[in-house]
């Protein structure tokens, strides 16, 4: 197959260059990447880009530059991880069960979190919603009836935090009692 014959090439290129993480939930774009990974990988490599197929089954382009929106998302996730970790939730196993109610987030309610969020330009509830919207654009989270949930690709946020020295609960620790509808903030 010629590179220009790759299915959804323009859509995949555009989505990945914008920082989107493509998961099974992205249907045909994901299927095209999964079916023709080597060809897409070679194409992106030729463009000086690194296509990554994460072990949890999603694709993204590795990017060493960190725009302000990425900093906001990582800080947002770090605060969320710390809060959920304090509640005994094993995010390595339960991340996709977490339900996020924007009105109950700790990010602006606790002084140390509020000050950290202000450093990246998030000062109010609208700012928090903009971070969630950015996470949606990047394919990391999505809203369902006003409550947000993480997508599989949000595991990349945990990876980034682990690389930065943030330790997420190891999987061998005893599990917290499962919540009926998933953990919720």
Annotation field: number of helices = 8
In the CATH hierarchy, the third-tier topology of the largest domain is known as Arc Repressor Mutant, subunit A
Largest sheet, spatial ordering of strands: 3-5-4
Q: Give the DSSP E fraction (strand runs of 2 or more residues).
A: 5-15%
List keywords for this structure.
185 residues, mainly alpha, Arc Repressor Mutant, subunit A, 2 domains, three-stranded antiparallel beta sheet, two-stranded antiparallel ribbon, 8 helices, 44% helix
Describe this structure as you would to a colleague.
The protein has two domains: 3-62, Arc Repressor Mutant, subunit A; 68-163, Orthogonal Bundle (Arc Repressor Mutant, subunit A). The strands form two sheets. Strands 3-5-4 form a three-stranded antiparallel sheet. A two-stranded antiparallel ribbon has the order 1-2. The radius of gyration is 17 Å and the shape is elongated. It is built from eight helices and five strands; from the N terminus they run αααββααβααββα. The chain is mainly α and 185 residues long. A hairpin with a 5-residue loop joins strand 1 (50-53) and strand 2 (59-62).
